[in-house]
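wait is this the right file?? whatever heres the structure
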């Protein structure tokens, strides 16, 4: 209900011409909106996790609105330098995609290339040489595929007894048991993939078919090299998509991530994105020691000249966003009027 009230309020503001006034204001020109995307659906991922995925058609609508609205879509590094220097062009926006999954290469990248927009991919790297689905994600997706059912026996996957998949909560319980199994004996990505394959057999799902479609897989080295040759900016997102609270382990994640990117595409990444938006004050000095010059969060807002460059806000766009919510953020209306909570659908 509260969201409906806010959407109605945005409608009134747009009808009154406030969106246009704010978009072209000096206040908006002094601020940068960093847009955040995760996955672009190959099939039905936007139904599985609508708060992370977006359909290609909807992404294209967003890009078209940036073009028609004459927004200045800037490369990340340039935008941050100009933000600090106070030389941003009007209506400045940055496009970022987290994780570097194959669906970016297949679905999002061709659209962005068509519009000629610069884009940054925050690339996690552990699964790149493995070329298998990310374990936690694919297991969750498989369980969701059989949502609403009770599977008589999960024994083949190491899950004794029936599997209740009728609710989000019960599926999360099954996921916790799968993660416990996968963490025994420090299993490799390939060993975890075999657990996922056994789960698929229990669920009577063709796992080879899913793997062939590259659902929930990362881009491989060849795909990364292609997008970098065509101007895509690849930056840091940790090696294993995690942020340990131990300094040695945290900095190891950055170093391994950077080393993999350097080896694959011969660039030296210095910008970082916190996996899952998780950050602690202790992380900031560790990032500085690793030569990181900016870090983006999942906190909602526009970046201002005095924003901490290691805690930059973004707007996370996804399938459940209404176009008016997107418009309210790119114009700056939500930021100016303090309507940040509309970002969390």
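ok assuming it is, sequence goes like this
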């Amino acid at each position: 209900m509260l969201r409906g009230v806010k959407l109605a309020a945005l409608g009134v503001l747009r009808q009154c011409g406030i969106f246009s006034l704010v978009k072209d204001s000096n206040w908006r020109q002094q601020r940068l909106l960093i847009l955040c995307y995760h996955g672009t659906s190959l099939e039905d991922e936007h139904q599985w996790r609508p708060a992370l995925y977006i359909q290609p058609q909807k992404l294209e609508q967003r890009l078209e609105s940036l073009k028609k609205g004459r927004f200045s879509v800037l490369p990340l590094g340039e935008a941050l330098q100009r933000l600090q220097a106070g030389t941003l062009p009007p209506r400045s926006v940055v496009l970022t995609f987290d994780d570097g999954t194959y669906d970016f290469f297949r679905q999002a990248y061709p659209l962005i290339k068509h519009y000629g927009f610069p884009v940054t991919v925050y690339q996690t790297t552990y699964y790149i040489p493995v070329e298998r689905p990310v374990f936690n994600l694919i297991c969750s997706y498989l369980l969701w595929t059989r949502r609403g059912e009770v599977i008589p026996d999960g024994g083949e996957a190491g899950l004794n007894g029936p599997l209740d998949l009728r609710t989000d909560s019960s599926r999360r319980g099954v996921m916790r048991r799968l993660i416990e199994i996968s963490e025994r004996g420090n299993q490799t990505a390939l060993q975890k993939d075999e657990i996922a394959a056994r789960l698929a057999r229990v669920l009577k799902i063709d796992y080879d078919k899913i793997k062939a479609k590259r659902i929930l897989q990362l881009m491989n080295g060849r795909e990364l090299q292609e997008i970098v040759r065509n101007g895509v900016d690849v930056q840091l997102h940790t090696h294993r998509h995690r942020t340990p609270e131990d300094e040695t382990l945290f900095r190891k994640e950055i170093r391994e991530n950077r080393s993999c990117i350097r080896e694959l595409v011969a660039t030296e990444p210095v910008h970082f994105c916190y996996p899952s938006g998780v950050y602690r004050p202790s992380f900031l000095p560790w990032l500085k020691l690793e030569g990181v010059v900016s870090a983006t969060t999942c906190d909602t807002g526009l970046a201002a000249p005095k924003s901490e460059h290691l805690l930059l806000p973004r707007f996370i766009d996804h399938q459940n966003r209404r176009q008016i919510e997107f418009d309210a953020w790119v114009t700056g209306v939500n930021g100016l009027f303090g309507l940040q909570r509309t970002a969390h659908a």
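The radius of gyration is 21 Å. so i think its the right one actually
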